[in-house]
Design goal:
The chain is an all-alpha fold. It is built from four helices and no strands. The longest helix is centred in the C-terminal third of the chain and has 21 residues.
Length: 105
C-alpha cells in the first residue's frame, strides 16, 4: 500500500475533539446501573462520547447536549429495549453529567 492509499489518521500532535478526562469514568458508572453488559453498551457509549466531544464550546451547548442525550436514549430504547422507567432515570443522570460538563467549560 502506498502512502497515498493509507487512511489519514490523526497524530498525537493533532487536535481532535475530546471530552474532559473525568467524563468517561462518570459515564461508565451511570451505564453500569443499566441491565445490559458493557459489551452491548459499548457502541452506544462511544457514540454518545463522540457526540459530546463534538459539541461546540460556545453558543447553545445545552441544546447540543440535549441532542446527544436524546440520540442515546432513542438508540438504547430501539436497539436494546430500554424500559421507559430506566430511560427516565438514565435521562436524569445524563442531564446531570452534561450540566457538570457545561459548568467546567
Amino acid at each position: 500500500m502506498s502512502d497515498a492509499e493509507r487512511p489519514v489518521m490523526p497524530t498525537a500532535t493533532e487536535d481532535t475533539p475530546t471530552v474532559p478526562g473525568w467524563v468517561e469514568p462518570a459515564l461508565d458508572k451511570i451505564l453500569a446501573t443499566l441491565p445490559f453488559g458493557a459489551d452491548k453498551l459499548a457502541p452506544f457509549r462511544a457514540s454518545y462520547l463522540d457526540c459530546l466531544a463534538g459539541c461546540g464550546r460556545a453558543g447553545d451547548l445545552d441544546m447540543e447536549h440535549d441532542a446527544c442525550r436524546k440520540g442515546m436514549l432513542h438508540a438504547l430504547t430501539d436497539s436494546l429495549g430500554l424500559s421507559q422507567t430506566a430511560a427516565r432515570t438514565l435521562e436524569q443522570q445524563l442531564e446531570k453529567l452534561e450540566l457538570d460538563i457545561s459548568a467546567q467549560v
